[in-house]
C-alpha cells in the first residue's frame, strides 16, 4: 500500500491547494505578460485554468483515494499522473472551445503539449513532496512509539522498588491497605504496559489516581493532592497514553519528596469551548536546584506535537517556590 496522499476532503488541504495553485498562476502571468494590463488579463485566464485543473484533480483523487492507497507507490504515481494529465487535457480543450476566437475546433498541439508538460512536472514535484512527508511522518511516529516504550521502561523500576517496599511494610500492621496497594499496582501496570496508541481521558485519570494512591501510602501526610477538575469533563476524549502520570511522578519525585514537610500537588483540568487545559503544579524544594534530565517532559512534548500539530506546545512555568507544567488538548481534533 502507498497511502502517501493527503486527505483531499480536508478543508486545510483544499485551502493550501487553492493557495498554491493561485501562486503558480501568478508566476505564469508574470513570465508571460509584458505590460500591466496584459498581466491582469493573463492572471485571470491562468487562474481560471490552473484552479480548474487543481480542483478537478483533487476531486477525482478524493473520490478514488481509498483505491489508490491500495496500489504500490510506483503504480499509484503512474495512475495519479495519468489522472492529472487527463484532467489537464480536458480543461485545455474546454477552455479553448470557450475562449477561442481563431475559429479552430481544437487547441494547437503546442499549447496542449505545453500544458501537459507543466502539469506533469508540477504533479511529480507534488507527489515527491507528499511521499517524503509521508516517510518523515512514519519515521516520527515510529520514534514516538519507541519513546513511549522507553518512557514505560523508565518509569517502572524505581517505582516498583518503592512500591514493593511499601507493601512489605504494610503487611504486618495493615494487611487491607497492602492488599489494596497490590491491586492498584496490578491495574496500574496493566494499563501502563498495554499496547495502545490512544486511551480515554477517564482511563488516564484512573491510571494517575492509582499511582497517587500508592504514593500516598508511601509518603503518608507529606503528600497532599488537590484535584481541580471541571464538572462535567469529556471523559471519553481520546488522547495519547501516559501524559499525566509521568508529569505527576516528576512533580512528586523532584518537587515534593525532597521537602521535609512534603507539599500539595495540584492537578487542574479546565474545559474551554475547544480545548482541555491541563496543568500540574507542585512546590519546589528550598534549594530549587534543577534535578533530572527532563526526559519525561521532552518525551511528552514530542508526542503532543505529533498528536496535535496545531495545538499550543507543552510549557513550563518555574518560580522560586513553585513549578508548573501546562498544556492543552484540542477537543475537536482526532489524535494523529
Descriptive report:
By secondary structure, the chain is α+β, with helices and mostly antiparallel strands. It is built from 8 helices and 7 strands. The strands form 2 sheets. It has a 5-stranded mixed beta sheet, with helices on one face. Strands 1-3 form a two-stranded antiparallel sheet. It is elongated, with a radius of gyration of 29 Å. The mean pLDDT is 82.
Structural key phrases:
single chain; 336 residues; alpha+beta; 5-stranded mixed beta sheet; two-stranded antiparallel sheet
Strand order of the largest sheet: 2-4-5-7-6
- What value does the Rg take, in angstroms? 29 Å
Percent of sequence in beta strands: 5-15%
Main sheet record: 5 strands, mixed
Helical run tally: 8
Q: What is the mean pLDDT? A: 82
Structural class: alpha+beta
Q: Uncertain spans, ≥5 residues at pLDDT below 50?
A: none
Total strand segments = 7
SSE order in H/E notation?
Answer: HHHHHEHEEHEEHEE
Overall shape: it is elongated
Distance between the termini: 19 Å
Helix content: 55-70%
Amino acid at each position: 500500500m502507498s497511502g502517501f496522499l493527503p486527505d483531499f476532503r480536508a478543508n486545510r488541504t483544499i485551502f493550501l491547494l487553492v493557495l498554491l495553485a493561485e501562486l503558480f498562476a501568478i508566476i505564469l502571468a508574470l513570465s508571460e505578460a509584458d505590460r500591466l494590463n496584459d498581466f491582469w488579463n493573463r492572471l485571470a485566464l491562468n487562474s481560471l485554468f490552473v484552479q480548474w485543473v487543481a480542483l478537478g484533480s483533487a476531486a477525482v483523487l478524493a473520490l478514488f483515494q481509498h483505491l489508490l492507497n491500495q496500489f504500490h507507490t510506483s503504480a499509484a504515481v503512474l495512475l495519479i499522473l495519468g489522472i492529472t494529465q487527463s484532467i489537464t487535457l480536458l480543461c485545455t480543450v474546454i477552455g479553448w472551445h470557450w475562449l477561442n476566437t481563431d475559429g479552430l475546433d481544437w487547441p494547437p498541439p503546442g499549447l496542449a503539449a505545453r500544458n501537459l508538460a507543466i502539469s506533469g512536472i508540477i504533479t511529480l514535484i507534488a507527489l515527491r513532496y507528499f511521499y517524503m512527508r509521508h516517510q518523515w511522518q512514519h519515521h516520527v511516529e515510529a520514534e514516538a512509539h519507541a519513546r513511549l516504550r522507553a518512557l514505560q521502561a523508565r518509569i517502572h523500576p524505581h517505582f516498583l522498588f518503592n512500591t514493593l517496599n511499601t507493601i512489605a511494610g504494610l503487611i504486618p500492621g495493615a494487611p487491607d491497605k497492602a492488599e489494596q496497594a497490590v491491586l492498584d499496582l496490578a491495574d496500574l501496570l496493566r494499563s501502563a504496559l498495554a499496547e495502545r496508541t490512544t486511551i480515554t481521558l477517564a482511563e488516564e485519570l484512573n491510571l494517575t489516581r492509582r499511582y497517587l494512591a500508592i504514593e500516598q501510602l508511601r509518603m503518608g501526610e507529606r503528600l497532599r493532592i488537590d484535584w481541580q477538575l471541571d464538572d462535567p469533563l469529556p471523559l471519553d476524549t481520546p488522547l495519547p497514553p501516559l501524559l499525566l502520570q509521568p508529569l505527576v511522578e516528576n512533580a512528586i519525585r523532584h518537587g515534593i519528596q525532597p521537602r521535609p514537610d512534603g507539599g500539595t500537588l495540584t492537578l487542574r483540568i479546565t474545559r474551554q469551548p475547544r480545548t482541555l487545559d491541563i496543568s500540574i503544579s507542585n512546590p519546589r524544594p528550598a534549594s530549587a536546584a534543577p534535578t533530572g534530565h527532563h526526559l519525561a517532559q521532552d518525551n511528552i512534548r514530542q508526542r503532543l506535537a505529533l498528536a496535535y500539530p496545531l495545538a499550543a506546545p507543552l510549557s513550563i512555568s518555574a518560580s522560586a517556590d513553585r513549578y508548573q507544567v501546562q498544556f492543552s488538548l484540542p477537543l475537536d481534533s482526532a489524535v494523529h
